[in-house]
Amino acid sequence: MRNILLLTILLASPFVMLSQRSSASYLTFLDEKIKVPSNCIAESPFELACEDVQMSWIYYPPKDLPDFIATNWLKVKERYPTAFKHPVEVTLYGKKAIAQKIIIRGKDQTIFQIWAYATFEEKGVFFQLVTAEDPVDTKAIPKIARKLIQIEKQ
Predict the structure, then answer these.
(1) What DSSP line would sit under 69-135, residue for residue?
(2) Closest by alpha carbon to 102, among 64, 142, 75?
(3) What is the pTM of this model?
(4) Which of 46, 47, 63, 65 is nearest to 117 (CA)?
(5) Among 74, 45, 56, 71, CA closest to 126
C-alpha cells in the first residue's frame, strides 16, 4: 500500500492547484512539528504542497529503501524516458543522507526533484522535494523545505 501511495505521489503531476485549503495546520516529520504556511496545503500527513515546492516523505524499513528507490526510478524512466539523475550531497534533518537529483524535461517546463533517504533511530525515511527551480544549493530551495533538507554539494 505504501508503495502505491508513494508511486502515485512520484508520478502524479508535481504541482497541485491550490484551490482548496486543508484544515490541517501542522505536519510532523519525525519529531519536528511543521506549521503549514498559508500558501500551502497539507495533502496528507506526509505531504505538503505549496505554490513553489512540494515535499513528501514516507517511513520505510531501512533495509528496503535502496530497492524501493531503484524500483521507483525505473517507473519514472518508463513514464519520462528523458529523465536523468545524478548524486547530490544533502543533509536530511541534520543527518547526511543518500540523495539524487532527478531532472525531468518537458516541452514547456523542467521539473527538479531531490530524492533523499536516511535512517533515524532504526526508522528509514524517504524524502522527496519537487520544484520548478533548479535546487543548486540550499538558498535555491524555498524556506519551508530548508527546515528539513540542506543541499551540501552537487
Answers:
(1) HHHHHHHHHHH-TT-EEEEEEEEETTEEEEEEEEEEE-SS-EEEEEEEEEEETTEEEEEEEEESS--
(2) 75
(3) 0.82
(4) 65
(5) 56
CA 2 to chain CA centroid, Å, is 15
Condensed to tens digits (0 to 9), the pLDDT of residues 100-124 reads: 999 999 888 899 999 999 999 889 9
Cα separations (Å) of 86 from 31, 35, 136?
30, 31, 12
- Written as nine digits, the cell of 136 is 543548486
Q: What is the dihedral angle through the alpha carbons of 123, 87, 150, 61, rounded to the nearest 10 degrees?
A: -10
| Residues forming beta bridges with residue 56, ordered by sequence position | 47, 128
Burial class (CB in 10 A: 0-12, 13-18, 19+), 11: middle
Number of residues that this document lists for the chain: 154
Cα(34)–Cα(38) distance, rounded to whole angstroms?
12
